[in-house]
Amino acid sequence: KLLDLLGNPQDKLKFIHIAGTNGKGSTTKMSATILQEAGYRVGMYISPFVVDFRERFQINGKMIERSEFTSLVEEVDVQVRTLAEQGDYVTEFEVITAIAFLYFERWGCDIVALEVGLGGTYDATNVIRSPECAVITSISMDHVEILGDTLAKIAGEKAGIIKQGGQAVTYPKQEPEALAVLLERCAKVGGRLVCPNAAAVEILRLDVLGSQFRYAEEEYCLKLAGEHQVYNAVAVIEAMAVLRERGFRIPEEAVKNGLKKAVFPARFEIMSQQPLIIVDGAHNRQAAESLADTLKHLDASPKVAIMGMMSDKDYESAVSSVAGQCPVILTVPVEWNPRALTAEALAECASRHC
Q1: Distances (CA, A) of 34 to 28, 44, 94, 136, 273
Q2: C-alpha distances in Å from residue 53, one per residue of 49, 57, 77, 168, 285
Q3: CA 284, CA 68: separation in Å to the nearest integer?
Q4: Which of the four pLDDT bands, split at 50, 70 and 90, describes residue 208?
Q5: CB 332 within 8 A of CB 344
Q6: Model confidence pLDDT, tens digit, residues 20-63
Q7: How many CB atoms lie within 10 A of CB 146?
Q8: pTM score > 0.85 for this model?
């Protein structure tokens, strides 16, 4: 209803739509950077933000200007109030998704890398028509109170972004239970699912500064650290192949340059070299295991972790994974958030491991 009142800007745009539990943001960033390298005007919509709310709305890597953001908020708010008078109430995420569509449409974006907020089927971003390509990143247990308490149920929600006759790419190391649901969805809607061959990936270098790998007889370099990022990149490479089939001109050089340049805040982000300080936002079992795996490649001693967690996350698993690499953990409160776990409770949990 809100988008109807705004002239349905989303129907005038093309999208690569990204859902999944872990790796959505990195995959969205890699996709956007490659498409920009290929010469397109690329919108990027991500959530959550890390430092500045305007990170959510970017065109060719630049955040929306404050004045334009203010103007769009005011414009959309008029329609939000109109709906409220009719008894239809709009959430914050729905408002900012509408703002993003308006922003990208008015700037004439050739394509938008659109990250799902939560789930897929009922996410506000899923009002779009069939995207040029849907990408399903790694699926694991998170937001179980909303999406379901099994991998199959969660995968079913993510699979909702695959539309009738749509093209989709999945993470190469998808869990079999989740992969079966994605294949079933494609069969149901007459879509196609590209499953990259993880065995075809040869990792040549892997350290805290990134990686170098070979896939499909081509060599690629990544700044994003961690083995999981290599497999995220492989999914992106296959998504670009799908976009080529859809008429996009994406030279192989643009793919290589885009992957080499893509950086994303709070994804094993190196904040300082001396001393070495790294920030990472892992907050579920799979992400914490990936973080611990990346820390293995870190030649530093001692390794000290500073952790703050939400009480509704699987903090037991996160602490257990990180403690395997960090013999000392300092726990801190997450200020002003009602969902925050106290530093004392997190310390009590951590004390069983380190």
Answers
A1: 10, 12, 28, 18, 28
A2: 6, 9, 17, 29, 27
A3: 35
A4: confident
A5: no
A6: 999 999 999 999 999 999 999 999 999 989 899 999 999 999 99
A7: 11
A8: yes
